[in-house]
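User: Quick sanity check before I run a bigger batch. Here is a single chain. Can you write out its predicted 3D structure?
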Amino acid sequence: MESLDADSAKLVQIALNNAKYKDAVRSIWKDEDASRLILGHTNAFYVRVDGLPKKGFPKDADYVVCEVCVDDALVRSELDAHRELLQFALRSNGLSFEEFRIIPSRHGMKLRHPFVDPDEGMRP
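Assistant: Done. Predicted structure follows.
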């Protein structure tokens, strides 16, 4: 990663984070249809620094948030029910963050499906 330019390193890090999310989902939902449903309705996965000040958090430290954008209310509910397990699986896969957010996808974000295998398509 150190030999890559900034843009390439960022793209590689995004791909690694997406792979860690996919592995975490598959470790929790072991049934292939269930994990495919979760991944099929996941429109984005972000690990980013939140620049807004947080009460009680050191001002000079980065406040890292992990966000999952999902386009289906049932899948959001399922992710929320397994929130602690998912956070543990993500941290076990090497991600470090202060807050985990599950947010609804809006507008054009609903058209993105980065975790769907193009050969299989999305099966509800």
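The two ends are 37 Å apart (CA to CA).

User: Great, the batch can go ahead then.
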